[in-house]
Every structure is written in structure tokens, then in C-alpha cells.
Fold this protein.
Amino acid sequence: MWTRVSDIDRMFGAMDLLRSRMDRLFTDFDRSYGDDYGWRVSEGAPRTNLYDRGNQLEIKAEVPGLAKDDLNIKIQGNYLEVSGTRKSDAPDGYKAHRVERGTASFTRSFTLPAEVDSEKVGASLKNGILTLTLPKAEAAKPRQISIQ
Amino acid sequence: MDEKKELVKKEETKLERNRQFPTVTPVVDIYENEDEILLHADMPGVTKEEVRVNVDNGKLTITGLRNLETSGAANWEEFGSVEFYRTFSVPQTIDVAKVNAELKEGVLRLHLPKSEAAKPRQIEIHEG
């Protein structure tokens, strides 16, 4: 009897799984990750996200294994360039069984959707994620218009 | 088609594991020397609290949850919240009690030391 109960339980678990897969179907569609997820330079550069938060833009990039000295960020008007090098962290005297993590240098440039104030750009690196906060230039900020 | 066999398989697939986030396989480097096996896995955005390393019955499982906090309208989004998950077979010669893990800059580094008995030993030859 108990084996039947766990079978039913498992069936509902499978249905839940199916439902969450269906929920994700459309958001996953335009994302570049799948089963072969990984940091690869052959794809050009690290994956990034760009968010528009009204007064500022925020860029997040995946840079696992990079220290802050390995990264270079250049900004001019609405042109942003992020470059970096990932050095090999292979230890000496070890035999390599599997090497999937790429090591190379990359450059990725962006045309930002708005002019930013390059003086106030902030960058932080935490747990392998680079976060750039780019306050928009005065002219590009959203403004409330009062009706006369 | 042995029924018993099928039952065991069902247990192993663990359908009841209900995942919130899409599961992705982290890329890894595996190195070995005489004393230990080293495993480096890329898990960008995973915090120390969200990493699980489990060695059980010759199986090493690493999982890491990345809960990406976002705000504002996304102009583009190439990565999101995911669950990193990967399983490895490890030899029984690993000293499970001494396994040690560190997480730095989004890279998980696992040290799996070999037990004393498994290390190669130089045999000295005595003159008779």
C-alpha cells in the first residue's frame, strides 16, 4: 500500500515539474543557456544583463574566477567596454583529468540605451558577478512634466 | 524486464525533486596528484550559504543556488537565477572526513584528499 502512496506522490511531483517547465518555456526561449552552461570565451565574452532603473542603468556580468585587477572597464558617453583576462588556475604538479573552464581574454562593448555620467559610475565584484551601476546623465533622466 | 530493476531506477531518478530554478551543469576542471584530487567548478553568483557538497557512497554531488536579485526593466538578460548541479563518481579511496571546500570569486574549489592506504609508496630495497 505504501509503495502506491509514494507512486502517487511522485506523479504529483512530476506534474509540478512539468508545470514549472511550462511556466519557464517563454522566458527560457531567448536565453542563451541550456544544458551546456558554462563560462566560455569562444562565445565571445561573459554573459551580461542590463537593467534600466529609471535614474540609472545596471549591468551585471558573469566573471567567475576573475579578480578585480583582471578586469578593465572603459566608458565614454554611451559607449561601454568591459575587457578582462582569465588566467589559468591549474596547480603545478597535478595531472589534469578534465579541463572545461576556459582561460582567455575577452572584450565586450555595449552601446548603452542612454548617456551616462561617467564620473559617477560604480563597479563592484562579488561572488564572480560584476555589477556596474551607471547613473544616467541629467539630460537622459526621466522627468516629470507638470501640466500648466 | 525485471520489475525489481525498474523500481530501483525510479528511486534514482528522483522525480519528486521539485526544482524552482532551471538546472544547469557547471563547468569543472579536475586535477589529480599523489595526495589529492582537486575539483574547480565555476558557479558565478552563488553565495557560500547556497552551496552543498555531498559525498555519499562513491558519489560526489555539488549543488549551488544562484538567486539573482534584479530590479528595473531588463533591456536584455542573458543569465538568471539557476541551480548549478553536477554529480561525479569518486573513488572509494577518498578520505571523506578530510574533504575541504572553498568558494572564492564564484569558483568552488574542492580538495579531496586520498586516504593513506591509497597513496603510492616507495618500497625500499634492503641489501641481504
User: Anything to note?
Assistant: Chain B touches chain A at residues 10, 15-20, 22, 24-33, 38, 40, 42-47, 68, 70-80, 82, 103, 105-107 (CB under 8 Å). Helices of chain B lie at 3-13.
